[in-house]
From TrEMBL, chain A:
Pfam families cross-referenced by the UniProt entry: Sdh_cyt
Organism: Roseovarius azorensis
Gene3D superfamilies: Fumarate reductase/succinate dehydrogenase, transmembrane subunit (1.20.1300.10)
InterPro entries xref list: SQR/QFR_C/D, SuccDH_FuR_B_TM-su
Subcellular location as annotated: Membrane
Example GO molecular function: metal ion binding
Single GO cellular component term: membrane
Membrane spanning stretches: 12-32, 52-73, 85-107
Record's function text: Membrane-anchoring subunit of succinate dehydrogenase (SDH).
Cofactor(s) needed by this chain: heme
Protein name stated in the entry: Fumarate reductase subunit C
Keyword terms, alphabetized: Heme, Iron, Membrane, Metal-binding, Transmembrane, Transmembrane helix
From TrEMBL, chain B:
Pathway assigned in UniProt: Carbohydrate metabolism; tricarboxylic acid cycle; fumarate from succinate (bacterial route): step 1/1
Protein name per its UniProtKB record: Succinate dehydrogenase iron-sulfur subunit
Residue ranges of every copy of the 2Fe-2S ferredoxin-type domain listed in the record: 1-89
Reactions this protein catalyses: a quinone + succinate = fumarate + a quinol
């Protein structure tokens, strides 16, 4: 159930995710090691366009990548297709996008 | 004695029959099936022709694995004196061990895996350069005998009936690399649709079970690469 367009979207989103995942893990280790408090973390992220772009892009890539990957699994394992499959794909992508972007906004809005 | 379990009937109504078959030296699985039909049950249906691994018509599932039965020695595949013989997976069964190969070959046509000539029949033939890289790549896949073993082995075909399958895509790849084929863009479009090459998960069962040791997975990876390149070129030139 992958045509060329979906295939390229999935590969490109993986390409975007790879460095961002490493960056995210590095940030998590750094935040925990130094014992940063919530206030200290928010102090660095709030009002930062850079952190919004970092996690905003991450969220978009994850939403696209996960939706396409689950679409393939659902098609091959449950045999769903057509409009139902399209609805399911968007039904996975949209909530991930909304939840992820609201989290990114929550920590980066000044 | 060999204990042989044979699947009978059609996809809708299948059952298994048990036969005791005398074991012999250098016995192939096709010999076993032929012995059953000639000595015990003349109603057993199966398909074969050349008996030397050229025609690609005798493939069946042997103990759950797709194999060409004429070139498979019983001694290599028998498990505790027992053989389970069934029709090829992923295809409708006409009767007993005979599958309907129409879906398999329809997909070759759908993948544009047929020759599109660059010259007419009254013109001289277009010579090929045997040592060019494209020709070498095409040569890797041209020994396919259309036996359907890769199609039966492919889990992506099992999960996604629209998927064109390893054999059709490999033939499309050999034609894409053939200087005498005139429809490059048509082939790339045909393998880029919903059931196209991008559905392959690179599990490699096709390469694992191909009796001619071909590697359709490599061909499909090549198609993925070329379709992406062509799409990027289209974007750039638009």
């Amino acid at each position: 159930m992958l045509d060329l367009r979906l295939y390229m979207l999935q590969r490109l989103s993986a390409l975007v995710m790879a460095p961002l995942v490493l960056g995210h893990i590095a940030v998590m280790i750094y935040a925990i090691q130094g014992g940063l408090t919530t206030a200290e973390i928010l102090g660095r992220t709030q009002g930062s366009l850079l952190w919004f772009l970092f996690y905003g892009l991450f969220v978009v890539a994850v939403s696209v990548h996960a939706a396409i990957g689950l679409r393939v699994i659902v098609h091959e394992w449950l045999g769903l297709g057509g409009m139902v499959l399209a609805a399911l794909t968007w039904g996975i992508c949209a909530p991930l996008l909304v939840l992820g972007l609201s989290a990114a906004f929550a920590v980066t809005l000044p | 004695m060999l204990e042989v379990i044979v699947q009978r009937g059609t996809t809708e109504a299948s059952r298994t029959d048990r036969f005791d078959v005398p074991a012999r030296d250098s016995q192939t699985v096709l010999d076993v099936v032929t012995w059953i039909q000639q000595a015990v049950d003349p109603t057993l249906s199966y398909r074969f022709s050349c008996r030397v691994g050229m025609c690609g018509s005798c493939a069946m599932m042997i103990n759950g694995v797709p194999r060409w039965t004429c070139r498979t020695h019983v001694s290599r595949v028998v498990q505790n004196g027992r053989l389970e013989i069934a029709p090829l997976r992923n295809l409708p069964v006409i009767k007993d061990l005979v599958t309907d190969m129409d879906p398999f070959f329809d997909k070759w046509v759908a993948a544009e895996a047929r020759h599109h000539p660059t010259r007419g029949r009254l013109e001289d033939s277009d010579p090929i350069t045997a040592n060019s890289p494209d020709r070498a790549e095409a040569d890797l896949g041209i020994e396919c005998i259309n036996c359907g073993i890769c199609y039966a082995a492919c889990d992506t075909v099992a999960g996604n009936p629209e998927y064109l399958g390893p054999a059709a895509l490999q033939r499309a790849w050999t034609l894409l690399n053939d200087s005498r084929d005139a429809n490059r863009s048509g082939i790339l479009a045909a393998v880029s649709g919903k059931g196209g090459c991008h559905n392959c998960h690179s599990m490699g069962s096709c390469a694992q079970y191909c009796p001619n040791a071909l590697n359709p997975m490599r061909a499909i990876a090549g198609l993925k690469r070329e379709t992406v390149k062509a799409a990027l070129r289209r974007k750039r030139d638009a």
